[in-house]
Design brief:
mainly alpha
Amino acid sequence: MEDKLRELEERLQEETRQREEYEQRISRARILCHELNQPLQVISGLSELIKLDLSEESPFYAQFQKMEQQVEKMAQTNHTLMSVIKGLS
């Protein structure tokens, strides 16, 4: 009987440890998503400000538009990743 209780206790401890590790990984993934989002917002904002000083005919204007489109794709991917992470917790 004692062996079974000890085995059960060890199993519960292991499951608790695994759950805590899992929760730590989810927490770190959330932090990483947030950290990725911050520079994306800065790049997007600066790009918009620069475009305000350019005419639409400028060759640089189109390049900044492309940059904004790519930043938006990255932001959407980051948002999707955060949704997946929320679904795991």
